[in-house]
Amino acid sequence: MKRLTTEEIARVCGGTASGHADITSVVIDNREVTPGALFIAIKGERLDGHAFVDAAVSAGAAAVMVHNDGVNVSVPVIKVADTEKAFLDLARAYRESFDIPVVALTGSVGKTTTKEMIWCVLNAKHNAHKTAGNLNNSIGVPKVLLGLEPEHTAAVVEMGMNHKGEISVLSKTALPNMAVITNVGVSHIENLGSREGILAAKLEILDGLKEGSTLILNADNDMLSKVKESDFDNRFPIRTFGIHGDADVTARDIKYLEASTEFTASVRPSRLSGLDGADGCESEDCSFDVFLPTTGEHNVYDALAAISVGAELGIEPESMAKALEGYVPAGMREKVEIVGGITLVEDCYNASPDSVRALSNTLRIKGEGGHRKIAVIADMLELGDYSEKAHRDCGKYLADAGVDMLMTYGQLARYTADEAKKEGVLRVLEFDSKEELARHLIPMLRPGDVVAFKGSRGMQLEDVIELVKGEIK
């Protein structure tokens, strides 16, 4: 982080500073304090950071920011009206000190994978900064922005939401000059009422986007395909990517292999002028081969979004292709591990019908060649009245993928089990206990099996994975 003073920080946050200190980092957790840190005391749902001010100072904080009266410590105090708002204001002001491409990204599913692929592509030309982990909310995004260093020449910032208005705040903080929406599904429909409501919430990403900046959309998504430049008074040019229909960036000759994907990417220089004149690009078309070290149609979409960003920024096709070869899955998102000859596909970070359908396609591909396909599915949360239909749809997807066995955990996943049985899956087992599920699964496994795990974060299905791994090893 660039060095700031307490006086500068107080000014941009509309507060007052009781003294001078040089600030080289900003934290909201007293356990993360290092010399030169500003500790911001934020009041959360469970904990109030003001209770940890003394601990932060004892740990070496150079200054603290509070909105409560009566804080008496030995370091400068920045007093503001609301520390959470001040955190956002500080992050926005700090971001404005960087004249670099900042790509904002949102979507119902695939955000983090797409973010990682965009980061790979950006690094083909830039020293790129990115969202780490799940820092995609009103606390996480400021932390990401304040992590920008003077040597960074580009950034990609992931934006998540549960309710209307949240992405608007994040966009106005990050001030992006390019935005990507991967898709509009049914995640958080319980809070937003309808897919139209979800679309409107995702389009809040435009609220902080500089006029004239590019909006990149998935042309194959039924909701995003309806979005037109005229909807926003032609203030933002729209560029599209897709597989099955007309788009500015497309994929053809796709080959889904057991652990990788190969395809030819095609870009229209007439729409994406950043590539015009690049090696391998003709006047009407630019095509190049791409290898991804992961499989599934959903990963092709994510790669096409990344290529769209790269093309807008004039990154050479060969450089983008090489960058995507180096993609590494993040966290618990479709991580593939072979243990004792058994392929475990771990995708337990979150779940929605769209992501279960993607995982079903992965199972289908990895099961080719006679491998037995086993799906372990837990509840999908925050779907409201749409929940039963969503879970039943997942049963159809898994049946279409030809799974040999389905095991479910949770009350909602029983709808998935019921639908899978109706669609012809012969071996379906339902459990209310993760331990019981693991106890039944482990003795059934044999070398060559492909086992996919999928559930909402709150279901913590990784507990089953660890039990399975421990027993196999």
Structure overview:
By secondary structure, this protein is an alpha/beta fold. It folds into three domains: about 80 residues, MurE/MurF, N-terminal domain (Udp-n-acetylmuramoylalanyl-d-glutamate--2,6- Diaminopimelate Ligase, Chain: A, domain 1, 3-Layer(aba) Sandwich); about 230 residues, UDP-N-acetylmuramoyl-L-alanine:D-glutamate ligase (3-Layer(aba) Sandwich), CATH 3.40.1190; about 140 residues, Protein-Tyrosine Phosphatase, Chain A. It is about 30% helix and about 20% strand. The chain has 15 helices and 22 strands. Helix 4 crosses helix 9 and helix 14 runs parallel beside helix 15. The model has no long low-confidence stretch (mean pLDDT about 90).
Short description:
The chain has 473 residues and is α/β, with parallel strands linked by helices. It is built from 15 helices and 22 strands.
Please describe the structure with a list of short key phrases separated by commas or semicolons.
473 residues; alpha/beta; Udp-n-acetylmuramoylalanyl-d-glutamate--2,6- Diaminopimelate Ligase, Chain: A, domain 1; UDP-N-acetylmuramoyl-L-alanine:D-glutamate ligase; Protein-Tyrosine Phosphatase, Chain A; 3 domains; six-stranded mixed beta sheet; 15 helices
